[in-house]
């Protein structure tokens, strides 16, 4: 977890380390947050559908994903 380079949110990095396919759910307390998949340069690739402050990620073996959480104005 780290502050985004542009200062507008928080970057979370997830990775699958066991060599299998996995689906995980992440949840946070602040529900006034948008989540998006970003690349390593923190450019948005795909918004994540979130519900009740949670989102799901599905991983291929050894895949790394970065998610940006940004406050909703």
Q: What would you note in describing this structure?
A:
It comes from Paenibacillus illinoisensis. This is Glycoside hydrolase family protein. One of its GO terms (molecular function) is carbohydrate binding. InterPro entries: Gal_mutarotase_sf_dom, GH38_C. Its EC number is 3.2.1.24. A 5-stranded antiparallel sheet has the order 1-2-7-4-5, with no helix packed on it. The protein contains no helices and 7 strands. It is an all-beta fold and 73 residues long. It has a single domain (2-71), classed as Immunoglobulin-like (Sandwich), CATH 2.60.40. The mean pLDDT is 92. It has strands at residues 2-3, 10-15, 22-27, 33-38, 44-48, 54-59, 64-71.
């Amino acid at each position: 977890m780290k502050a985004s380079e542009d200062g507008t949110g928080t970057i979370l990095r997830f990775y699958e380390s066991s060599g299998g396919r996995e689906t995980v759910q992440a949840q946070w307390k602040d529900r006034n947050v948008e989540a998006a998949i970003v690349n390593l340069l923190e450019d948005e690739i795909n918004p994540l559908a979130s519900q009740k402050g949670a989102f799901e990620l599905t991983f291929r073996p050894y895949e790394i994903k970065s998610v940006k959480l940004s406050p909703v104005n």
